[in-house]
Structure prediction request, 410 residues.
Amino acid sequence: MSKDSPQASWREIRRQNARADLLAAAWDLVREGGLGALSLRELARRAGTTTPTVYAYFASKNDIFDALFAEAAASFERTNARPVIGESPDERLIAHARRFAAFCTSDVPRYQLLFQHVIPGFTPSAEAFAPAIRGLDAARRRLADAEISQPRHVDLWTALLTGLVDQQISNDPDGDRWSRLIEEAVLMFVTHCRDPARSRPIHPG
Amino acid sequence: MSKDSPQASWREIRRQNARADLLAAAWDLVREGGLGALSLRELARRAGTTTPTVYAYFASKNDIFDALFAEAAASFERTNARPVIGESPDERLIAHARRFAAFCTSDVPRYQLLFQHVIPGFTPSAEAFAPAIRGLDAARRRLADAEISQPRHVDLWTALLTGLVDQQISNDPDGDRWSRLIEEAVLMFVTHCRDPARSRPIHPG
DNA sequence: GTCTATAGCTGGATAGAC
DNA sequence: GTCTATCCAGCTATAGAC
Prediction:
């Protein structure tokens, strides 16, 4: 097939580079002004081109968000796949939680795109979503390694971590007022999960 | 002063009513389409008037957001001030957490306006903010009643609750997948706060 | 205070030349 | 594929008549 000829693949590489340049400019834009600041005019201007060229690489603005989501999800999967340092399962869980929080707070628009659903009319495609699912599965496996596998405990885990991250981002964006509570929160969590009877329901059902 | 004459105060009441009508229409709008869906044209249309009339009651769009914020903060304060049913401090804390979660999930845009900072260029005025502060102080007092008063535990409390609320809103808006974990989460929390040595830091500082 | 009309701008998306 | 030029819709906000 002619697509495998050297010339064609060279062109393909060029094309991929132009696409990557546009996406890089898009990340710059949203990191400076939030997800709402992504406009095709400004994006084209920063990439040194014009809006019709943008449409040569992306079908629509939401298609750009989808590509950004895919990159964010891939980063999330890579981050979660890296082995974590710690001698005990609990230490590894703490390190894992710290890494997750750092991933989120270090790039707020990326976090909002991945985990909050704040862009009206945008839903990520299945392909873009897949790595995010795998990243969450990695988190589930790490919990299972610490002998925490009940579904409701997994949900409590995600609520605890995203709660800390959200408060950190919303109320102390340049500090560590909530980030520094991660170790205590994780230990509270694992202690509870291993001995749930200690905090017995008041209204048993 | 002529402002106290019957006619003037009647006019003042009319004026306040028109303002209230506009705010009610604004709430309808954001409840249907999110905070981003508030446009002055559509707001005026729904209130049966036109945009210049809106500007007779509000100086700007952000002034409308400020009025919405003030109403939301006042609701929050009233909700938190109501006594809570429960025989023990823990039961009252659980009821309080349930009420907070219900307050948030029952009106997502109100929650986003009050607790997340998602509107570019808008910061609530000090007057609008004051009742929100008092509402949070009420929460602090309830924690103190349960013998939880360390600042980092208060922060952990807000993170835990907003985490549950956020996950509920973002990932299961019509269900109770995270809301139903409130009691367990609160008991985990109070158990930890009363016996923090049980979940001892791995790296003591 | 309320209207008509519109200024002035920004947005996404496209037609058509090259 | 990349450009110029433009369409069309939406927005906040205001001028000026009544």
Q: What stands out?
A: The mean pLDDT of chain A is 92. The two ends of chain A are 66 Å apart (CA to CA).
